[in-house]
Amino acid sequence: MQPQNTGPLVTPGRVAHSARRGMIALVAIAGVSSSAFISNAGAANAADAPSVLFVRGADRSGGFLEANNDAARTEQLADINNASTNGGNHGWATFAGVLRDVGFDVDQVTEGAEQGGPTNGLPVDFVELDLDRYDLIVFGSNNAVYTAAQVDAVDSYVRDGGAALFISDANFGGSWQDAPNSDQQFLDRYGVTVYQDTGTYGVDADEFITPGHPVLDGVSSFDGEGVSPFDVGNATVDVTVLAQAEGNVRLNPGDRQGPSRQADQDDAAAWVADVGAGRIAGHYDRNTFFNANGAGTNIGRFSNEQYAVNLFSWLTENSSQPTLTPGGAGVSERNNGQTDIVRVPLTLSAPADVDVAVDFETLAPSGAGLAIPGEDFVAASGQVIIPAGQTTGFVEIQVLGDNQAEDPLFWGEWILVRVTSNDAVVDQSFFGLGVGVIIDND
Fold it and tell me: Of 197, 180, 199, which Cα lies nearest the Cα of 139?
């Protein structure tokens, strides 16, 4: 029988739809149980809404500039469950409702409270938390000190296609020393510094630095009160400044109230950046998004609501890089001692302006219908380059022939190929895997 390379056989979408029953045997390669796979698969199909996680500070950890008791310190935290419209409130329930109304799934995690009096709280364990459940993490009223491993986890999440928003405000923590430093631990990874709290001002459309940016679409102005802008002059990522800081900024020496100086061209009230496959942004004040009658300002003033929706939409789009879809291809099995090549396709959603490097490795799971490295194919790992302007590349795997009849798993024995890339967003509809199928001829 003359073997024949059948070329492209299946797309991940077809695999996910047609072979759902067979996937239970494969979930171990993704590090999840079969029950978790069923739950996640159903959620992925049913909920296309971008998922946002707000990080709230621990009870009693806010408001050292204004609050003088535990209840007031807790109320000073920006909280998506605080629906108060009392004068000077610090609630974000209206903000969360606006996001839900336009299709976001909104959740919140609270830093742990320590025993005793005013506290900075205990950090959220981002190492253990399943960050991949979320499209965006919002650092809104966080005050805890985070470990290097926890910062690493967030940084990796972003660079792998997640997003983070830093809404700074120095009215947190137990002192000036603590105020901006919870955000700063994360921003250090990108060469951005957050200033301490000072000044009150809005930014009008004629002051926008990048007026054509999608975040500013339909926005005539936004404002803040007691603002904490950012120094982006030494950023290690490609920052786009949307609006510059105005008036004075207060430097952050890290251990005391800092001195003030006039804002310059490196100081931003609002900025965005692409980081690997993900996105980050900074906004100068939490007050912009308070409930009606909120402290200083609120989400209903000026274009604050439109700005918020635009900002969250941009952060969760991840459209700065093309999507990379690993596909499937098949080849008829040769006889014992003969070999062939199966070419697993890698397809970009759009041509990139630069070469796209794709790392790959064949996996060695066990189970009926799964190809065995060394017996059915030659294990391989390496890198495929999809040249700028093109959309397709191939992972080539050597297939080993035999004369043994084997039980197929949908069309034949499956070779599983894990794909990663820092230059594209890998489609995870089939765990980021490509499939080579050895079609049995015995």
Answer: 180
Cα separation values, 269 from 167, 257, 259, 309, 317, Å = 10, 20, 18, 17, 22
CATH superfamily of 5-32+321-439: CalX-beta domain (2.60.40.2030)
**pTM of the full predicted structure?**
0.65
Instruction: DSSP for 28-67, please give it.
Output: GGGT--HHHHHHHHHHHHH--S-EEEEEEPPTT-B-TTT-
Q: How far apart are CA 44 and CA 264, in angstroms?
A: 45
Q: How far apart are CA 311 and CA 305, in angstroms?
A: 10
pLDDT tens digits, one per residue of 344-391: 999 998 888 789 999 999 998 877 778 999 999 999 999 999 999 999
pLDDT in tens, 122-138: 999 999 999 999 999 99
Give domain limits for the chain.
Answer: 5-32+321-439, 51-317
Nearest in space to 152 (alpha carbons), one of 134, 168, 128: 128
